Amino acid sequence: MKDWRRRLLNWLDHRTGLESAIRNFLLEDIPASSGWHQVFGSVAVFLFLVQAFTGALLAFNYAPTPGDAYNSLRYILTELTGGPLMRGLHHWGASMMIVIVVLHMVQVLLYGAYKKPREATWMVGVVLLLLTLAYGLTGYLLPWDNRAYWGTVVATRIAAQAPLLGPYLSRLLGSFGGEVGVVTFARFYGLHVLLLPPATTILIALHIYLVRKHGVAPQPEDENRPPKKFFPHQVFKDTVAIFAAFVILFVLAIAARVPLERLADPTDTTYIPRPEWYFLFLFQTLKFFDGPLEVLGSVVLPTLAIGVLILLPFVDRGKARRVTERTGAAAAVMLLAIGWAGLTAAAVRSTPKPDLAATVDFSQPTEWIQLTPIELAGIGYFRQENCVNCHTVGGGKAKEGPDLAGNIHKSAAWMIQHFKRPAAMVPGSSMPSILLSDGQLNTLAAFLLKLNPQNAEALQSAPDFAVQGALIYQARQCGSCHVVNGSGMKLGPPLNGLRRRRDRAWVERHFRNPQALSPGSVMPPYRFTPSEMENMCSYLFTLSD
Amino acid sequence: MSESSPTGRRSFYLSFIYGLWALLSAALTAPALVYLLLPPKLRSREDWVEAGDVEKLADHVPLELTFRQIRRDGWKVSSEQRTAWVVKLGDQVVAFGPQCTHLGCAYHWEAAKAEFLCPCHSSEFGPDGRVISGPAPRPLDRYESRTENGKLFVRALKESEPTA
Q1: ipTM of this complex > 0.90?
Q2: How far apart are CA A319 and CA B92, in angstroms?
Q3: Which domains does chain A carry?
Q4: What are the chain A neighbours of B20 within 8 Å (beta carbons)?
């Protein structure tokens, strides 16, 4: 059997040379000092492959136009099994890639591995870092939610500020007159999936070729020690590191949900954009430069920093290579790390709390947004009365009572009678009476009439603030004058789309004293407790337009 | 061979390397297959839509009805015009999909012969949808349907069983 395999391999090798090539690649000599500190390059390549793989899978269900991008991503997140995992891997993989690439560079810097004759390897590496950041920048727009849109508005405006090149850069990014639109989207998508991947692949190949050409950088003590083989010792360490990185990535993708915000809204005047965490330090740097100096912080300084980084092998001309002797390099890395952490922390601290204490995560099913206030308020009584103690809702392990999402619904009037005296309507029922007013029972019935097996999970996931808001809305009889989701009287203005017309502070003041803000209004003033005001406003501002 | 000998260490390294890579590949391909192969979870069921009045329908005389149905196509939800051939068969009313089960041409009703005729390859179907002659492999497909107060409601189009 072994002999047969040997012959097949020999045959293949004579025709293709593959086996010899792999053998040469794996059995390369590496310095005796190599070890765990050199695993980051392999991990970065692995993460790049994970990004390519998950990116292609996402593209299979993604429509790359502003009209459809958001909906197709919601489809991936809410309808496809494994969809949230794929997006999670891709999202966190991007962040991890930045971390690993930076660690890789820090290692090279500390060991002085960029010194003669390895300057070109370092420079190609810096370009790869920039490409990694470019993926982050272009990929950020693709979900086409508010975060994506407004983040990109800022990014393209910064590009437009560049001295001399600004207007051209801006046009290259498809942003004419500072607007982000369909052309910008197409350019970003094209860059992200068509241009950057082959560029990265070629540069990674070149980078690895250069590493091989010069060999892994030795430490001074390696001179008198026999070299090791890359395979299997270093491959083993690389594999363990890759595996550890993947476990972290997988756990992040499952446990840390990536939110999806509201569909991009260019007319939203309240949105406060924030970049991805790895760009926050740049964002914070910008704040130190005002007016005409702004371009210094946004373009000139970053460009200079990149220049210094690329030319580092020529800036640092010292001879020291021993990691313990490179105190200058270590100090520089420490300073940069502290500076970065400080700027990032300041940026995080200065991030205002969103206007609404409660925001809606659109990566979850959100059918509840379409419910009328009475139906949504019904969820409140449904939860308060703990109906799920004895009833299943749309499947699950059978309980004492019938499935409430099943085909058991009669009229609202029947249900109200049943809630009051269960056994009178269903002989033999062991259900306790529900001690609520007729109006409240009617509200509960309205929700139950809306339940079916398909929407059960989505409706029950309605966030508490919205349910509480709807309960107040019901209790204060807002529906006698206002329409929400097609239900209510048209005496006052409809409340769908309120968030486009007014801001939060205005609405709060208006509740307290309507006539002060809308002279002639017949709306009575409302005195809410702070938490009532919070829930009410949050609810009104989550309504669809 | 003891664990500390070079060959023993080497085979330990090798099995570790292969094992971890096998795990990694499995952890990536298994979710990918699930993601690509499982059908989407449709959160909203297909709703019954009213196809039209069938109270005055004569027995065994088909009527072509058009109605609008919601179509869920991936992330797109659109309202589409659909057609059904509706026939009263005794006390039952059935609604046939408007395409021949052979290659999908639109068939029509030949009143003179009292059968459905497909113009493409001359498949013929009886008023009950059964194949009379021609290459059609199975009877006409039927919509899920129910009648309420003389109105016909339809839901999904179901493929019929092939003729034995």
Answers
A1: no
A2: 95
A3: 1-28 (no CATH), 31-272 (1.20.810.10), 367-542 (1.10.760.10)
A4: 239-240, 242-243
